[in-house]
C-alpha cells in the first residue's frame, strides 16, 4: 500500500493547502459553538459552556494531531501503509474507539491529582477546568508545531495541577500521584525501547541471520504474529472495550489466547504458501509483516480513541455537569454531544495536522522497515499490558517513541560491533595491499547490518588488505554512523520533561486571567 505520494498524501502535507486545513479546523470549532448553543439554550451560563465546548474541541484536534502519530507512524515509515491510507484508517478507528468504548463516566480530575472537594466555589471549579483544558491544548499545539510527540495525558495532568494550585493552593495537589507520573517519564520509554530491541534481536537471531531465511520464517514468523495477536486481543479487552464488556485480566488473556490460536494457523498457512516464491532475504521476511502492521495500526488507534478521548472530554463533561447541577463534580456522565465533540475532534485533528508527526515518528528518528515496525507495535501492546498489571504509570506515547529509539540504537550497536570485529581482523596485514581494500570499503559502507556479518566472514577467509591509520579513522566514521537522529532525541526528551511544568504554568496563568475577566 506504500508508494509514491498520492493525491491525498499531497493534500494533507503540502504547504499550499495549510491555510485551508487551518480554515477547516476553525469551521469545525464554529460548528461546535453553534451546535452547543442550540443544545444549551435556556441553561444558565450557556455562553460559558459554549466556550468550553470549543476549547474541548480544540483539545481533541490537538490530541489527534500529536498523539495518534505513535499508532500509525511506524506502519507508514516501514511502507506497510501510505500516509493517506494511515490517516483514513486511524481517523475511522480513533473516532470508533471514542464513541463505542469511550466510557459513560470519566474522571474529571485526571488521575486524582487534586482534591476537588476543597473547592466550594462552582465558578472557581469551572474556571479551573477551562484553564486546564486550554493550557493542555495550547501545549500540544506548540509541541506539534515543534515536531515533538508528547503525552496528551501528561499535558492535561499538568493543566489540572497548575490551575488547581492557582485555585486552591499547594495543598490541593496529591504529590504522591504526581511522583508516579514523573516516574513514568523514565519507565515508559525504557520499557518500550527494551522490549522493541529484544524482539528485533530475537527476529534477527532466529530468522534474519540464518542461512535459509525462508525456512526459518516458516518456523518462527507464525509464532511472532501469534504473540502480537495475543497482546492485542488482551490489550483491547483490558483497555479498549471496557464500556462494551467488563472482564478481568485472566478473562482478557483467555480471549487473547483464542485470537492468537486462530492467527497462528492462518499465518502458518500464509507463510507456507508464500515460501515457494518468497525472496530468501530480509526483504522476503518484511513482506510477511505488512498486514499484521495494518491491523496493529487500526487496533492501536481504536484503543487510543477509547482511552485518550477522556483527556479532551473529561474536563468538558465536568464543566457541563457543574453548570447544570450547580455543584463541583469529581466524576461526570458524558452526554452524547460531548462524546461527539471528542471523537470528531480526534479525527479532524489527525486528518488535518497529524501527518507532520506521523512523518517524524515513522521516518525521521530512524529508518524503519516492516520487521522493526512490527517490533515497535508489539512492544507497545505488551508494555501497556505488563505495566497495567504491575501498577506502573506509563504513557503510550512514550512507550511507542521509546520503541522507535530502541530499534534504532540496537541497529547502531550491531553495526558498530561488526565493524569493530572487521577492524581488528584487518589490522594485522601489510601496507602495500591498501589498494585492494578500497572496493571492500565501498561494499562495507553500503552494506546493511545483516550483510556486514557476511563481509566479516569473507574478510577473515580471504585475508584482505591492512588498514592504515587514516583508513582506520575512515572506517570508524562509517561504523559510527548515526542510525538514530540525536537532534530528534534531544528535542523529544526535552519536550517530555517540560510537558507537565509547562502546561501547569500556562494553566495557572490562564486561571488567574479568566477569574480576573469574569469576576
Helix-strand pattern, N to C?
Answer: HHHHHEHHHHHHHHEHHHHHHH
- What's the total count of β strands? 2
Strands ordered across the widest β-sheet: 1-2
Helix content: over 70%
How does the helix and strand content classify structurally? mainly alpha
Shape: elongated
Question: What percent strand?
Answer: under 5%
Please write out the topology:
Elements: H1 7-13, H2 18-39, H3 46-66, H4 69-78, H5 83-101, E1 105-107, H6 122-146, H7 152-168, H8 175-208, H9 213-240, H10 249-274, H11 282-287, H12 290-308, H13 310-325, E2 331-333, H14 336-364, H15 370-390, H16 396-426, H17 437-446, H18 449-462, H19 469-479, H20 486-518
Tell me about this structure.
The structure is a single chain. With 519 residues, the protein is an all-alpha fold. Helix content is 77%, strand content 1%. The chain has 20 helices and 2 strands. The chain has helices at 7-13, 18-39, 46-66, 69-78, 83-101, 122-146, 152-168, 175-208, 213-240, 249-274, 282-287, 290-308, 310-325, 336-364, 370-390, 396-426, 437-446, 449-462, 469-479, 486-518, and strands at residues 105-107, 331-333. The chain has a two-stranded antiparallel ribbon. Helix 9 (213-240) packs antiparallel against helix 10 and helix 16 runs parallel beside helix 18.
Amino acid at each position: 500500500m506504500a508508494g509514491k505520494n498520492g493525491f491525498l498524501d499531497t493534500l494533507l502535507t503540502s504547504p499550499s493547502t495549510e491555510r485551508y486545513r487551518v480554515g477547516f479546523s476553525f469551521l469545525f470549532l464554529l460548528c461546535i459553538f453553534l451546535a452547543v448553543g442550540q443544545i444549551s439554550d435556556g441553561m444558565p451560563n450557556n455562553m460559558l459552556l459554549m466556550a468550553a465546548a470549543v476549547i474541548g474541541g480544540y483539545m481533541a484536534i490537538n490530541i489527534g494531531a500529536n498523539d495518534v502519530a505513535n499508532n500509525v507512524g511506524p506502519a507508514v515509515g516501514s511502507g506497510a501503509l501510505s500516509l493517506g491510507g494511515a490517516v483514513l484508517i486511524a481517523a475511522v478507528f480513533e473516532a470508533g474507539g471514542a464513541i463505542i468504548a469511550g466510557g459513560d463516566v470519566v474522571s474529571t480530575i485526571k488521575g486524582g491529582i487534586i482534591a476537588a472537594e476543597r473547592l466550594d466555589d462552582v465558578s472557581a471549579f469551572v474556571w479551573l477546568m477551562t484553564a486546564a483544558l486550554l493550557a493542555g491544548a495550547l501545549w500540544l499545539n506548540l509541541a506539534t508545531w515543534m515536531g515533538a510527540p508528547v503525552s496528551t495525558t501528561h499535558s492535561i495532568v499538568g493543566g489540572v495541577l497548575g490551575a488547581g494550585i492557582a485555585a486552591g493552593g499547594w495543598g490541593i495537589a496529591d504529590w504522591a500521584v504526581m511522583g508516579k507520573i514523573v516516574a513514568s517519564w523514565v519507565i515508559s520509554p525504557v520499557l518500550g525501547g527494551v522490549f522493541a530491541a529484544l524482539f528485533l534481536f530475537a527476529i534477527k537471531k532466529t530468522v534474519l541471520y540464518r542461512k535459509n531465511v525462508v525456512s526459518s520464517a516458516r518456523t518462527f514468523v507464525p509464532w511472532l504474529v501469534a504473540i502480537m495477536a495475543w497482546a492485542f486481543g488482551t490489550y483491547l479487552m483490558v483497555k479498549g472495550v471496557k464500556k462494551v464488556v467488563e472482564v478481568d485480566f485472566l478473562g482478557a488473556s483467555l480471549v487473547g489466547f483464542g485470537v492468537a490460536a486462530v492467527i497462528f494457523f492462518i499465518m502458518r498457512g500464509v507463510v507456507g504458501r508464500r515460501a515457494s516464491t518468497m525472496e530468501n532475504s530480509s526483504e522476503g521476511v518484511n513482506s510477511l509483516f505488512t498486514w499484521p502492521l495494518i491491523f496493529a495500526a487500526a487496533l492501536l488507534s481504536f484503543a487510543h480513541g477509547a482511552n485518550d478521548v477522556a483527556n479532551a472530554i473529561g474536563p468538558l463533561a465536568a464543566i457541563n455537569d457543574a453548570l447544570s447541577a450547580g455543584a463541583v463534580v469529581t466524576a461526570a456522565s458524558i452526554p452524547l454531544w460531548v462524546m461527539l465533540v471528542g471523537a470528531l475532534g480526534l479525527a479532524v485533528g489527525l486528518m488535518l495536522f497529524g501527518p507532520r508527526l506521523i512523518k517524524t515518528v515513522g521516518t525521521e528518528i530512524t529508518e524503519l522497515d516492516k520487521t522493526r515496525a512490527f517490533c515497535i507495535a508489539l512492544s507497545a501492546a505488551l508494555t501497556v499490558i505488563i505495566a497495567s498489571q504491575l501498577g506502573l504509570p506509563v504513557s503510550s506515547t512514550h512507550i511507542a517513541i521509546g520503541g522507535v529509539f530502541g530499534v534504532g540504537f540496537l541497529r547502531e550497536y550491531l553495526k558498530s560491533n561488526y565493524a569493530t570485529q572487521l577492524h581488528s581482523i584487518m589490522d594485522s596485514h601489510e601496507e602495500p595491499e591498501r589498494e585492494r581494500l578500497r572496493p571492500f570499503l565501498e561494499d562495507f559502507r553500503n552494506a546493511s547490518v545483516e550483510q556486514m556479518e557476511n563481509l566479516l566472514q569473507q574478510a577473515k577467509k580471504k585475508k584482505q588488505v591492512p588498514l592504515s591509520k587514516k583508513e582506520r579513522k575512515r572506517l570508524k566514521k562509517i561504523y559510527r554512523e548515526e542510525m538514530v537522529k540525536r537532534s530528534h532525541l534531544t528535542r523529544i526528551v526535552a519536550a517530555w520533561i517540560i510537558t507537565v511544568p509547562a502546561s501547569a504554568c500556562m494553566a495557572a496563568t490562564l486561571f488567574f486571567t479568566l477569574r480576573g475577566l469574569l469576576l
